[in-house]
Amino acid sequence: MPRKWRQSDFDDDGYDDYDEEDYYEEEEYLEDKEPTSTSSVVPGQSQSFTSTTQPTATEVNEPETEEGLWACPVCTFDNSLDSLTCDICDTPREDLSEKVSDPSTSSKEKVPFKFDTPSPDEKNLAARGLKKSPIRVAQSPDDILNGARSSMAKAGTSKSISSAVSKLNVPGLSQSSGASTSESHVGNGSSSAPEGELADALKQMNVGGDYMESKSRENADASTSTYGLSLESYEPEPWMLKDANKDSRQLLHLIVVGHVDAGKSTLMGRILHLLGRVSQKEMHKNEKESKQQGKGSFAYAFVLDEGAEERARGVTMTVAVAHFETPKLRVVLLDAPGHRDFVPNMISGASQADAAILVVDASIGAFEAGLEGEGQGRGQTREHAQLVRSLGVEQLIVAVNKLDAVDFSKERFDFIRGTLQPFLKQCGFKDGSLQWVPVSASEGQNLTMASTESALKAWYNGPCLIELVDSLKPPPRLVARPLRLTIAEVMKTRTLGPSAFGGKLESGAIHSGTKVRVMPSGEIATVKSIELQGQQLKTARAGEGVDVGLNGIDPGMLAPGGVVCHPDYPVPVATRFEVQLLTLDIRTPILKGSQVILHVHHARQPARVDQLVSLLDPKKGTVLRQRPRHLTANQSAIVVIVPDEGVCIEKYSDFRALGRIALREGGKTIAVGIVTDILERK
Amino acid sequence: MKLVRQDITKNGAGSVKLVPEEPEDMWHVYNLVAKGDRVSGVTVRKVMRETASGAGEAERVRLKLEVEVETVEYDKVASVLRVRGKNMLESEHVKLGAYHTMELDQQRPFVLAKAVWDAMAIDYLKQACDPAASADVAAVMMQEGLANICLVGASITTVKGRVETSIPRKHGPAVAGYDKALNKFFENVLQAVLRHVNFAVVRCLVVASPGFTKDQFFSYMMLEATRRDLRPIVENKGKIVLTHSSSGYKHALKEVLAAPAVLALIKDTKAVKEVKALDDFHTMLANDSSRAFYGPGHVFAAHDRLAIQTLLITDELFRSADITTRRKYVDLVESVKAGGGDVYVFSSMHISGEQLQQLTGIAAILRFPLPDLEDMEL
C-alpha cells in the first residue's frame, strides 16, 4: 500500500497516516481508468491468456516496484529499502531480484501478497466455480464504470486464474472457468436493465470489496485460528447474499455533529418535517410544548430530542435515530449531542456512521467558540471533526447554519470555509469528499429545495443540503463475511422479549433462527426476531441498524460494547493490544501507566497505557525513537494498551470497524488510533 | 491510631506499642511493619491437646506471642492485617521457631519492635498517630448507567459499592423504558449511599457526573428523602456537593478532588496535595520535558546532580522486602529533604498514588533542566 507522502501531489494532509488502507482505496478509485483497459480485454481471451501478458498485470498490481520502497508481503505496508523487516509487522523482506529477472515465472511464487492477487487456494476455489461472483464482475463494462474497486480486483483475479489454469494444463478446469465467465455474462445482461443497474452493480461491488478484503486477511493472520476458525475459511451461505429487499436504494448511516447549540437537532428536525416525516399533529404538539417551556425556537429540535431531560435543558444528550429517504438513499440519521460531556455518546454513534454532516454556527462568536472553545478545552467543532474522521467517516458535508443571523453574508460563509478547510484537511478529509452548503434551519433555507431568500440566491446556486446527502456514496458492505453485530444498547420490549438489543450489522447477515455467539461472554443464543423501526424483518444484512431479540440467553449477558458473532468465528476479546496512535491537542502528556478511557465501537472502558513502544514520524511512519518517555501533542506512536477487562476488538487490517479506537481522559479526546496487533486475549 | 508507649531512637533499635482505631489505621500499620521486625500481641491459636484417653482434641487458646515477620498481608475489604512469621516467645503451647500467623485488628494493642527505625518509619508513625489528619470524603461518581461509591480517607480510597445498569436509549417505543430504567438506577445508587456513607464521619458527600446526571440524581434523592423520611439525608443536605466529572469511573476522582467546591472543604488533606503534585509533574513534563523525569534510573541520576526540587514517591517502594532497596529510597528521600527539596510520599491506595505506581512509582520535578539526561537510556 502506498505511503501517504507519496500521494501528496494530489492530496496534502498530514493527519491520517495511520489510516493507510483508506488511502489505498482512494487511490484505486482515482486510478479507475487504468484497470478498465486491462480488464476489458479479458472476456474473449480468457482461455488463450498466457503469461506474456503477465508483466502488464504485474505492473498494475504492484506499486511496490517503485524506487526506494518495498511492500510487505503480509500487511502490504510500503517500507523503505533501508529496513530489512516490515515496520508494521516485522515480516522479513523478500528478495525482489528474483521477480524482476524472470517475468514468466508463475505469479503465485514470486509476487508478494497484494489485495488483487489471489492465493493458490483461492485460484483453486475460483476454478471450481465456488467463488463465481468476483470473477463475473470483471467482464462487464458497466461494472467497470460503476465499481472501480471491484473491477481492479477482479481484473487481477481472472487473469491470474486463467494463467494459473493454463499453466496447469488441465483442460477440464480451464473450461469450467470459461463456463463460469460466460454464465456471468448472462447475469450481467439481465442486471443492466436501467432500473436495477446501479443497485446490482453496487451489490457486486460490495461482494467484490469483501472478496478483496478477505484476501488481504488470507496470509495476514494465521494465529487467529487457535481461537475459533480463521476469518478466511468462512463461506457465506447463499441466503445471505440474495437481495430480498425490494427497495433498491442503498442504506446510509449519516451522523450529524457539531458544537453545542450549533443547531444540529433543529436542522434535522426541520428537514424531517419538510420531508413529511413528522405529522402536523406531532409538530403542533412540539410547538406548544416548546412555547410552554419558553423555548419557542426549540420546536424542531424537539422532533429528535424526545427525552424529558433533554427537552427541559434544551440540549441533546443521547444519539437520536431517525429515518428518511432521498431519491437514491435510505438514510439513517443519527443526531449526536454537541455538549462536551456527551462526547462518549457521540463516539458510539459515530462508530456506526458512513458519512457525516458537520453543522457550524455562522453567527458571530459562536463559530469561533466552536473551533477554539471557551474556557477549558477545545470546541466540539474541532473535536467532533477529528473524531468522526478517525472513526472511519470519509465523506463530510459542512452545513454552515444560522446564516440568517449574519444576513446571508457571503463573506461570513467564505471566512468560515477558509478557516475550516485547512483544519479539516489536516484531519484527513479529502477535498473531493468535502462539501459545503450554506443553510438556515430556522428560516428553512436551502434544506430540501433551493433557497428562496434573495440575499442567499444572489451568491449561492449550488445544491441544497438534501441533494448533497443524496450524492453521498454508501461504503461497501461486508455481506459475505462472518457475522459481526455490535451491540449499541440493550432493551426490553414486548415484541422482542427480555433479551433484546439494538445495533449495527458490520458484516454478515442474520435471519430469525440464526445461531449466534454473544461476545465477550461467549454464550450461544438464537435469533428470535429482527425489527427495523418497529417493523418485523426476515433477514438483515451488513450495514443495517436493527433491533434483535434473542432466545436462550440471560439479558445480563448483553451489554453495550458486546459483539454478536457467528458461533464459529467469535471476535477476539483482547486484554492487551498494540495500537498505532495519533495524539491530538493535549496538555498533559501521555506516559507509561496513564489512565485513559478506551472507546471502541460502542464499548467504553477504563484502560491504561502499558508501554510506549516507539515514537513514529507522523509523515513517513518511520520509527524516530524507541521507548519514548512520554507523548505530547500531535505525535504518532505505537503503544500497548491494557483495558481493565477484556474488550471486543479486531486488528484494523482484519476488520476496520472493530479496529478503530479513541482514547479519552478528563473529558477530552487525547488520542485516536488503530489496532495493529492483539497481544493477549481471553 | 493510639501510641501507647514508645521507646525508639532514630536509626537505632526500639519498640512502640500501638492501638489501631480505624480501618485506615490498618493501612498505616501495613506500611510500618516490614520483614524482619518483631510483632508481639495477644493472638488465638488452635492447639492439639491430648485427653486422658489418648485421643487428640483441638482447642483454641488465647495467648501472647511474638513473631519475627516474614510476610504481611493486608486485607482491604475486612481491614485486617495478617502477619506471618516464626514464634520468638516461649509458651507452653507454641514452640520456639514454630510458624504462626497473627491477625492484627482494630482495637487490639500490639508491640512493634524494629532493629532500625529509619526516618521514613518515624515520619510515618507520627503521621499515623495524628488524629487531625483524618478527613473522610464520600464521593458518588456517576454517569448514566454506572456509579461508584468511594470513600476518600487521609491515605486510602476505597470503592464501597458499584452500581451498573444498562439504560436503553430514548427513541421509539423504548422511551418509557428509559425513564423507568433511570429511576431504578437512581434507586440502587441511593440505597448504596445509605448503606455505605456515614454522615457522622464524612466531611461531605460529593456527587459528581458528566452532564446532568448528578442534578437528576440529586433531585431524585431529595424527593425520596422527604417522601420516605430518610433522616441522614434530610439532615445533611448541606453536606452534599455537586460537581462535574468527566466520567463515572474511579479514576475521575482526581478531577473531583481538584474541583474548587470540594477543595474548599478538604484543602489540606493528603489526597488533595498528592493530586496537585502529580498534576504539576504532568504540566512540567508537557512544558519542559527536560525538567521532569520518572523511573528510578533517571531520578537517581538527577539526584546525583542535586537537581531534584520535588520528589514524588509511592509508599509501595518502602514496602520492599529487600532491606538495601528500602535503605536506598529512604536515603534518597532524606537527602532530597536535606537539599531543600519537597518530598511527597504518595499513598498507593489513592488514585494519584495508583497512577504514580503505574509510572514506576517514582518521579521528580527538577530545579534546572537536564537535557542530556533525556537522551540517556536508563
UniProtKB/TrEMBL annotation, chain A:
Q: Does the keyword Protease apply?
A: no
**Compositional bias (Acidic residues):** 10-31
| Gene Ontology terms: cellular component | cytoplasm
Q: Could you tell me which residues belong to the region Disordered? A: 1-69, 94-134, 170-196
Keywords assigned by UniProt, alphabetized: Cytoplasm, GTP-binding, Hydrolase, Metal-binding, Nucleotide-binding, Protein biosynthesis, Zinc, Zinc-finger
Keyword Cell membrane listed? The answer is no
How is this protein named in the record? Answer: Tr-type G domain-containing protein
Q: Which organism is it from?
A: Physcomitrium patens (Spreading-leaved earth moss)
Automatic annotation (TrEMBL), chain B:
| UniProt organism field | Physcomitrium patens (Spreading-leaved earth moss)
Any keyword Metal-binding? yes
The source's domain of life comes to Eukaryota
Q: Where in the cell is it found?
A: Cytoplasm
Q: Which residues form the signal peptide?
A: none
| Named cofactor requirement(s) | a divalent metal cation
What family is this protein classified in? Answer: Belongs to the eukaryotic release factor 1 family. Pelota subfamily.
- The answer to keyword Ion transport applying to this record is no
Residues in eRF1/Pelota-like N-terminal domain copies: 1-130
Example GO CC term: the record gives: cytoplasm
Recite the lineage of the species.
Eukaryota, Viridiplantae, Streptophyta, Embryophyta, Bryophyta
PANTHER family in the cross-refs: PELOTA (PTHR10853), PROTEIN PELOTA HOMOLOG (PTHR10853:SF0)
Please give the SMART domains that the UniProt record associates with this protein: eRF1_1 (SM01194)
Q: What is the documented function of this protein?
A: Component of the Pelota-HBS1L complex, a complex that recognizes stalled ribosomes and triggers the No-Go Decay (NGD) pathway. In the Pelota-HBS1L complex, pelo recognizes ribosomes stalled at the 3' end of an mRNA and engages stalled ribosomes by destabilizing mRNA in the mRNA channel.
Q: Name one GO molecular function term.
A: metal ion binding
Q: What protein name does the entry list?
A: Protein pelota homolog
